[in-house]
Amino acid sequence: MGLRIENLRREFGELVAVKDLNLTVETGEFVSLLGPSGCGKSTTLNMIAGLLHPTSGRIFIDDVLVNELSPRDRRVGLVFQNYAVFNYMTVYDNLAFGLKLRKTPKNEIDKQVKEVADFLRIADVLKKRAGGLRLDQLQRIAIGRSMVVKPSLFLLDEPLSNLDPALRAVMRVELKKMQKELKQTVMYVTHDQLEAMTMCERVAVMNKGELQQYDTPTVIYHHPKNRFVANFIGSPSMNFLDCSLVEKDGKALLDAGAFTLDITHLHEIVRAQATGTELVMGVRPEDIEIMNQPSGADSVPTSVYLVEQLGAKSLVSMSLGNTIIKALTPGGFRADVGETKWIRYQRDKIHIIDKKTGKVAV
Amino acid sequence: MNRRAIGILRNLFRYVALVFVSLLALFPIYWMFSTSIKLANEWVATPSVWFPSKPVLLNYQFIFSMSYEYLIGRVPEEAAAFYPFSWASMKPIFDSLILSTSSTLIALFAGTLSAYVLSRYGRKGAPPPTFPLMYRMFPPVMVIIPVVIMYATLRLTDTYLGIIILYSTLTVPLVLWLMKSFFDEIPREIDEAAILDGCSLFGAFYRGVLPLIKAGLAVTGLFIFMLDWSDFMGVLLLGGRNVVTIPLKLAEYTSGHGELYGPMAAMGVIAVIPPLIFGILIQKYLVRGFTFGAVKA
After folding, report:
1. Contact indicator for A201, A17 with CB cutoff of 8 Å
2. I want to staple A302 with a disulfide (CB 3.0 to 4.6 A). Which of A94, A217, A318, B199 is the partner?
3. What does the alpha-carbon distance between residue B254 and residue B256 come to, in Å, rounded to a whole number?
């Protein structure tokens, strides 16, 4: 097991930054901690690295309890958002820093630094001072400096957020490739769901210090556990409609005011999972079909509010009662504002959420 | 007039202005230097003597001898016999160097370490502590009287240790204040990276952060050195016989016969040299140190 966290908790005075977190990362796995700012993901990372003491809970790295170990003895590499490269040193000295402190013999240092520099493609700037280099080169140095001491766990704290979008895409691919080649256990902290979803094998979504869901990107996207995850993952985000469960003539209907939806086939599950009849229906923009004519009983008339052209897709906002519903359609969608269109939900893709608990029932 | 001519004119004007300002700033130094090589009758002559009619080293010979009598009207050629060089005359220079250097080093050491601790381990977002600065909220005269009394009791009066303690305690708050602002500019991640790479807490400070603020350290050092170097009151009240610094010696050149401007100027020229050397040594850091904070590193 690469990393195991048991009931980890950290309080700052009144504030509980991390609330009884349990998490395991397999050796060689690429896992991300995803959440909005202030959700406790950086606090968690700092505790794993040993820069911060947990209030309670235990951390195991490679099945060794590390709570009382100093950062250097944890064999953890940490790459910071702002890189924290020593810019008055040469690239070589930056890479050699950790090895020198560990009193590694000189020729050994030389060998390992060259190896890492080749791997990260910064061999040509080894003799230069880190100060004047490009951002992505600094990024590589930061990664290299942690890599050179061969950590058992690699922690990355929003490493790409200082790069421009084009470089970010490049580094995303390279990081992923690097991790695969080295079979390195990586924990990647980010607030960017695109990075988490594309690079990681499992994603831990956090909010307000609590773990919301920990699963593969596909499961998290298609089967969110609660309203927070459903809302946070996916861009543009999911539509939510307040509705209530009505039973009539042996059928179960979802009454949203402007329309009703037959959910008889889901009735049993909803009844078992939900605490009451107050529900929220969630549906992703791409799971809504827009039609010019009503077709079938499920069609709901709406009026077009705004059309945004995204290129390959068009994002259409439509008003339905008091709410705005967003739908993704193939690019080039044309409609006048105020024009009436019919929409249909893909029935097997809707989520039904308990309004009181926020738990996703279906 | 074409554009080129305007450009040349503008440059010309710029240089004239710069030369003017430089002259203004350098003139007192020129006046000190020229007075130091003038004969007595030209020191305060009317009209002023802009260039010494006959440059002499008389004043320098005087200050480097132990003679207390300045023989006005003597021909310079006889000076060597009248003013034999004496090592004892170097005492004010040595005293100044010893006191200023050691006080500066002590203040830098104590101030920098405390500044680092306050910057890193103080409460995040807490306002910087003002109590160290309270020392400088009032003129030093206010503390000096109690200090004189305390020193008399502690038998520290007229000792090197006493003056060094006085200088370093008065300047540590300044070092702390200045250095803390330099440390605050360095992201904490630098320390954390160093710690993860295997440094101790002190190692993170010494190997990680300190090299980044060499400029700030050098400039703070120069600033403190010049403060100590130019102190008059402290050494006037607490020194005198055993401890004699340059400013104190300068005061001695006011005698019953009037002001000995020539020797004063000569001593002034000598006094400028150490800070000047210090300044030249750290020249490459000066601009960076002064603009630290204004420009992001």
Report:
1. no
2. A318
3. 7
Give the pLDDT of residue A277: 81
Question: What pLDDT score was predicted for residue B73?
Answer: 62
Helix H or strand E segment including B24: helix B3-36
Q: Cα separations (Å) of B215 from B78, B274, B275, B283?
A: 49, 19, 17, 10
Distance from CA of B117 to the nearest CA of A (A): 16
3-class SS at A187? Answer: strand
CATH architecture observed for domain A3-232: 3-Layer(aba) Sandwich (3.40)
Greatest distance between any 2 Cα atoms in chain B: 78
Q: Are A293 and A313 in contact (CB under 8 A)?
A: no
Q: Which residues of B touch A72 (CB under 8 A)?
A: 195-199
Q: Report the gap between the CA of B205 and the closest CA in chain A (Å).
A: 13
Distance, CA of A34 to CA of A337 (rounded, Å): 37
Q: Which of A51, A109, A161 to mutate to test the interface with B (most CBs of B within 10 A)?
A: A51
On the question of pLDDT at A46 being above 80, the answer is yes
Query: Among B189, B199, B297, whose Cβ lies nearest the Cβ of A101?
Result: B199
**What DSSP assignment string belongs to A50-105?**
TSS--SEEEEEETTEE-TTS-GGGGTEEEE-TT----TTSBHHHHHHHHHHHTT--
Average pLDDT over residues B257-263: 82
Q: What angle do CA B219, B225, B226 make, to 5 degrees?
A: 95
Please state the rounded mean pLDDT for residues B74-81. Answer: 68
Question: What's domain A239-354's superfamily in CATH?
Answer: Nucleic acid-binding proteins (2.40.50.140)
- Put simply, the answer to whether A76 touches B208 (Cβ < 8 Å) is no
Residues of A in contact with B217 (CB under 8 A): none
Percent of chain A whose predicted confidence (pLDDT) is above 70:
100
**In the prediction, which pLDDT does A219 show?**
94
Please report the pLDDT score of residue B296 as a whole number. 38
B266-293: pLDDT as tens digits = 999 999 999 999 999 988 887 766 655 4
**Strand, helix or coil at A298?**
coil
Give the one of B189, B197, B208 whose C-beta lies nearest to A145's C-beta.
B197
Same topology between domain A3-232 and domain A239-354: no
Residue B231 three-state SS = coil
CA distance A317 to A350: 18
pLDDT number for residue B295: 38
Nearest CA among A42, A48, A43 for reference residue A4: A48
CB A282, CB A361: distance < 8 Å: no
Rounded Cα gap, residues B129 and A114, in angstroms: 47
B196 touches chain A (CB under 8 A): yes
- Give the distance, in angstroms, between the CA of residue A77 and the centroid of all CA atoms in the same chain: 21
Query: Whole-angstrom Cα distance, residue A153 to residue A63?
Result: 12
Kind plus residue range of the DSSP H or E element containing A33: strand A30-34
- Which domains are assigned to chain B? 3-87 (no CATH), 90-291 (1.10.3720.10)
| b/e sequence A79-100, b meaning 16+ C-beta within 10 Å | bbbbbbbbbebbbbbbbbbbbe
